[in-house]
Amino acid sequence: MKKLLLCIAVLTFLYSCGKKDRGELVGAPGKKWHPEKPYGMTLVPGGSFIMGKPDDDVAQLYNAPTKTATVRSFYMDETEITNSQYRQFVEWVKDSVVRTRLAILADEMQLTPDDGGIGEYAFLDADTTNMTEYEKYMFNNYVGLGPTGYEGRKLNKKIKIEWSTSKYPDQYYAEVMDSMYIPVDQTYNGRRTIDVNKLVFKYQWRDINAAVQSKTRKDKNFLRDEELKIYPDTTVWIRDFEYSYNEPMHNDYFWHQAYGEYPVVGVTWNQARAFCEWRTLLKNGYQKSRGLQPVNNFRLPTEAEWEYAARGGLESATYPWGGPYILNDRGCFMANFKPLRGDYAADEALYTVEAKSYDPNDYNLYNMAGNVAEWTNSSYDPNSYEYVSTMNPNAYDTDNKRKVIRGGSWKDVAYFLQVSTRAFEYQDTARSYIGFRTVQDYMGTEATSGKQSVFKKQRK
């Protein structure tokens, strides 16, 4: 009997050691999370500030009364999103559209990689030999539910897209590529360009605010499908300025590498938001391929976040560099705007300047005043400061199509460069003086306790 009890005790001990938790509440297993500063972003440590206009409102709009607000920590792009960065988005969409069209035609012609030519671009799930049982289940039960009948099919991204007509592998490939360009009768000077209307980005998002206010709270009722053309409207350089010669900007500004590091313009609020969704998709696709945890979504900043970041830790400052003057001690302008009764060239810039121009503020953010005004996530209501929360305030309303823009631009007078000045534009409108930058929530609380030391560590 004693031997039996001894054996039971030993087995119990071994079992306890094997589990390592000794029967204690130690939490579910998981990898330790280490915050990673996104490329090109800076950490804005959370805190409180006086939001609104501390001085007289010379425009007498009275839409920004002073209010103490607190925001959580977040990462923000050091510069406005540039033409080069937005072109990466455009190229990704163009590549995806072409691959999808090639795969669909290959599927319709019942061609596989073994057939060569366009068959090399067939959907990867066309051959189910190496698919897991779960993948077979998903393929058999969820394919064909969308409007094209090919939703959920996996594209083959390992095969290079050939853009040179002399290298087209077969006539089917030529047929697909031909459909991506403007019609032959619309070409000029021997140039046949991509039909930008074909560059469409699709994504889904959850309307959490509507879900919270609903009694059913079923996710499927609050999934929103978005589908939009993502190429910037380059005609803004003509439409925004009647009786003015700006054709060179219309022709070259977005696509020419000479302007690669300049801020993208001609982008609507809807397109800026789509860019955020794509950037999240791009990053989390990489995270998944490496077996890493997903990161928080990239998004547009709220109006309060933008103002807090623009102030750079300076209380009641008129401009990002302090205030209230727009010239430094050497008599040089501190930003790109319209000074001196319309002398656009007085600040050494006629239109926009490179995104990393002038001195950054104390959060290492460039051009938070001037250059281009910036879209925010917030809807514009002149009375919103009266009712928004003091913690992470944001007046977001899907029914309100007027969205707040901040910071002023190269064509604005100094008043619009003030960190507290509010303006708006309609979310489906593009302008030659409006761009954007993105933010990402910081996961953790360390950045708000002793924020200066954490911020300096991030700068290093």
Give a short overview.
The protein has ten helices and twelve strands. It is of the alpha+beta class and 460 residues long.
Written account of the structure:
This is Gliding motility membrane lipoprotein. It holds the Pfam family FGE-sulfatase. Keywords: Lipoprotein. GO terms for molecular function: formylglycine-generating oxidase activity. InterPro entries: CTDL_fold (IPR016187), Glid_motil-assoc_lipo_GldK (IPR019866), Sulfatase_Mod_Factor_Kinase (IPR051043), SUMF_dom (IPR005532), SUMF_sf (IPR042095). The chain has 460 residues and is α+β, with helices and mostly antiparallel strands. Among the domains are: 41-82 and 288-459, paralog of FGE (formylglycine-generating enzyme) (Alpha-Beta Complex), CATH 3.90.1580; 90-195, no CATH class. The protein contains ten helices and twelve strands. The strands form four sheets. A four-stranded antiparallel sheet has the order 1-4-12-7. A four-stranded mixed sheet has the order 10-9-8-11. Helix 2 (83-108) packs across helix 4. The longest helix is centred in the first third of the chain and has 26 residues, at 83-108. The radius of gyration is 27 Å and the shape is globular. The mean pLDDT is 86.
- CATH top level label of the domain at 41-82 and 288-459: Alpha Beta
Structural class, by secondary structure, is: alpha+beta
CATH structural fold name of the domain at 41-82 and 288-459: paralog of FGE (formylglycine-generating enzyme)
Adjacency order of strands in the biggest sheet: 1-4-12-7
- What proportion of the residues form beta strands (DSSP E)? 5-15%
Number of helices: 10
Low-confidence stretches: none
Query: How many beta strands in the DSSP annotation?
Result: 12
Helix content: 25-40%
Q: How do the SSEs run, as a string of H and E?
A: HEEEEHHHEHEHHHEHEEEEEH
Main sheet specs: 4 strands, antiparallel
CATH superfamily of the domain at 41-82 and 288-459: paralog of FGE (formylglycine-generating enzyme)
InterPro entries: CTDL_fold, Glid_motil-assoc_lipo_GldK, Sulfatase_Mod_Factor_Kinase, SUMF_dom, SUMF_sf
Protein name: Gliding motility membrane lipoprotein
Domain Sulfatase-modifying factor enzyme-like: 40-439
Keywords: Lipoprotein
